[in-house]
């Protein structure tokens, strides 16, 4: 969608992506950095972010779905792509033909994937995921070696990696991460004893990579940090050198001057305590601006000043209270980003909504056009 055709758009600074990747790759030391671009690059654009990240030092990519990997291959991206959870059997042939790295952990799925690979005459690369404590997906620690031996016994599969995922790496005071590291290190020690250690052994997500939590990692799977967003409020200080890549913009589409006591938006839930200029922005909850922002102190920048969202956010539009400011149709508004001396971050919005910055940027819908700022500029 052309950004000229809508008065609401996202700008993605690919130069910021590249600077973040370069910084994080340096912090990763000897470990490779694989950029996580699932969920359409956390709302930033998977293909564009992948190209930028690979150009700045990333050596591989991570996604959640086979179709996400296929999109990258269709864009002529040849770098290794790890799909970080098991996929339906209907996707196996496409995955193998796309030469992506499958994550496997269930006995039946391993056998099924091996059969498809054998039928195609392809040796499929596999990473075994070990559940060391998050309890979402993965082979239990007690059966990890059995699954490794199973994969190694199948001639149509290549055990290319073994990894785990931390449940609380973004919480510095949580003791579970150290326990997960120890459990995983025990698995790796068994792999070494049986000479089964694969090419890649890895643990680190963004938070773990920033905190350097484990030496047992050949790959840092970095997601939210490459977009310039701290994994949690507790890690904001560690993210101070990262540059947010995404900003969310709109233009004022309507201006009216309302008297004290007038109600605004559906249900007229907000009554003005004094006369004010109300500006309408053509962006709403269908675009990813959560409906309840009006209740939790959501704000927008217009003219470098913070203006509170007033009344319920509607599907396609929202209203803001500009006080006595001189606001005109076409004026530039910022929902995420900086204007003048003020800025609103994804994490600021997340705190108000009692969620995380990930959800804020991932939730910006596809109908909002993306404008990419050239990484070379």
User: Which structural class do you get from the secondary structure elements?
Assistant: alpha/beta
General form:
elongated
CATH first level of the largest domain: Alpha Beta
Number of domains: 2
Please give the radius of gyration in angstroms. Answer: 23 Å
Question: In DSSP terms, counting alpha (H) and pi (I) runs of 4 or more, how many helices?
Answer: 11
The largest β sheet comes out as: 9 strands, parallel
CATH superfamily of the largest domain: Alanine racemase
Please name the CATH architecture of the largest domain: Alpha-Beta Barrel
What is the total tally of β strands?
Answer: 21
**Overall pLDDT level:** 94
N→C terminal distance = 23 Å
Range of helix content = 25-40%
CATH topology grouping of the largest domain: TIM Barrel
Give an overview of the whole structure.
The structure is a single chain. The strands form 4 sheets. Strands 2, 3, 4, 5, 6, 7, 8, 9 and 10 form a 9-stranded parallel sheet that branches. Strands 1, 11, 16, 17, 19, 20 and 21 form a 7-stranded mixed sheet that branches. Helix 1 packs across helix 3 (46-55). The protein has 11 helices and 21 strands. It is α/β, with parallel strands linked by helices and 377 residues long. It has 2 domains: 14-234, Alanine racemase (TIM Barrel, Alpha-Beta Barrel), CATH 3.20.20; 246-344, Lyase, Ornithine Decarboxylase, Chain A, domain 1 (Beta Barrel). The protein has helices spanning 14-27, 38-42, 46-55, 66-74, 92-97, 107-120, 144-153, 176-193, 206-211, 346-352, 357-362; strands at 8-13, 32-36, 60-63, 81-83, 101-104, 124-131, 139-140, 157-163, 200-202, 219-222, 246-251, 254-258, 263-264, 270-271, 276-281, 299-302, 305-308, 318-321, 332-339, 342-344, 370-373. 46% of the residues are buried.
């Amino acid at each position: 969608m052309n950004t000229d055709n809508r008065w609401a758009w996202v700008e993605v600074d690919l130069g910021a992506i590249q600077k973040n990747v370069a910084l994080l790759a340096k912090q990763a030391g000897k470990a490779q950095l694989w950029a996580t671009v699932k969920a359409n690059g956390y709302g930033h654009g998977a293909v564009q972010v992948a190209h930028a990240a690979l150009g700045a030092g990333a050596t591989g990519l991570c996604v959640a779905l086979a179709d996400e990997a296929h999109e990258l291959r269709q864009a002529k991206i040849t770098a290794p792509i790890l799909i970080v959870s098991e996929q339906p059997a209907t996707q196996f042939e496409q995955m193998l033909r796309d030469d992506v790295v499958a994550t496997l952990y269930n006995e039946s799925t391993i056998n099924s994937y091996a059969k498809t690979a054998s039928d195609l005459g392809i040796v499929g690369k596999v990473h075994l995921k070990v559940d060391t404590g998050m309890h979402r997906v993965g082979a239990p620690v007690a059966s990890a070696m059995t699954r490794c031996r199973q994969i190694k016994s199948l001639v149509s599969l290549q055990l290319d990696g073994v990894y785990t995922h931390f449940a609380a790496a973004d919480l510095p005071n949580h003791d579970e991460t150290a326990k997960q590291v120890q459990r995983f290190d025990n698995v790796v020690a068994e792999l070494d004893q049986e000479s089964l250690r694969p090419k890649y052994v890895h643990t680190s997500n963004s938070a773990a990579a920033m905190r350097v939590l484990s030496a047992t990692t050949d790959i840092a799977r970095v997601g939210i940090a490459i977009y310039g967003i701290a994994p949690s409020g507790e890690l904001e200080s560690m993210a101070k050198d990262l540059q947010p890549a995404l900003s969310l913009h709109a233009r004022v589409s309507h201006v009216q001057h309302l008297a004290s006591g007038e109600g605004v938006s559906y249900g007229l839930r907000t009554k003005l305590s004094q006369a004010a200029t109300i500006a309408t922005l053509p962006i709403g909850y269908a675009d990813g601006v959560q409906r309840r922002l009006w209740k939790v102190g959501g704000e927008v920048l217009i003219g470098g000043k913070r203006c509170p969202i007033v009344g319920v956010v509607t599907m396609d539009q929202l209203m803001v209270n500009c006080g006595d400011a001189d606001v005109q149709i076409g004026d530039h508004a910022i929902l995420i980003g900086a204007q003048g001396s003020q800025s609103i971050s994804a994490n600021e919005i997340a705190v108000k909504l009692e969620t995380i910055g990930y959800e804020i940027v991932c939730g910006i819908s596809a109908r909002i056009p993306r404008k990419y700022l050239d990484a070379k500029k």
